[in-house]
Each structure stands twice: as C-alpha cells, then as structure tokens.
Recover the amino acids of this structure.
C-alpha cells in the first residue's frame, strides 16, 4: 500500500494550492481519510478529515479556507487550500484508516511566504 502526496510548493500569503494524494495497492473507497500537517518541533495535527459516514470535519484554523474531497474513480484524495496564511506552512500528510490498518503518505511541503 502506498499513498503518494503531491501538490505542495511555495505560495504567497493569500494564494491557493491543491494537494493530491493518490493511493496504490488499496482504495480510498468509503474509508476514513484525512490530511494532517506538521511543523518542526510540534506534533502532527489534523487539518481535515472525511469519516466513514462521509462527514467532513476541519480544524478551526482552516475552516472556511480549506476543502477536503475525494474522487473514488481516480482513487485520489484532495485538499484545496485557499487564502493561505503564513501559519499554514508545514509538511502535509495524507492518511487512510481501513479497518485496523492506518496508512500515511510521504508528506508534501507547503511554504507560505509574505
């Protein structure tokens, strides 16, 4: 099983990025999926998740700016990030929880500059 995250990069504050996470060896299906982020010296934190009941939840810090979605046909998870702020700078990881297993992507760096 592999999750391949992409789409990170450097963007100015106020800009947008869309992260993608492609799965191989498994399917996202209707399992719980999510995006997390981590900065050096801090714990990894949840950014957005879609639960197995298809409900989406967001961290307070990104509500109204980020949107999580998945394309079951393309087997890809997305995170649309708008109105980016300096504090959104982090490595972003995609996550899949399938029954008792949990999988992580390799991370993609997002850097927001002023």
């Amino acid at each position: 099983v592999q999750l391949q995250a992409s789409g990170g990069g450097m963007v100015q504050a106020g800009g947008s990025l869309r992260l993608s996470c492609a799965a191989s060896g498994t399917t996202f299906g209707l399992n719980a999926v999510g995006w997390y982020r981590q900065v050096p010296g801090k714990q990894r934190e949840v950014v957005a998740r879609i639960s197995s009941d298809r409900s989406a939840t967001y961290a307070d810090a990104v509500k109204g700016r980020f949107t999580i979605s998945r394309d079951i046909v393309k087997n890809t998870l997305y995170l649309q990030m708008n109105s980016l702020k300096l504090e959104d700078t982090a490595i972003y990881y995609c996550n899949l929880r399938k029954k008792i297993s949990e999988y992580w992507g390799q991370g993609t760096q997002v850097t927001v500059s002023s």
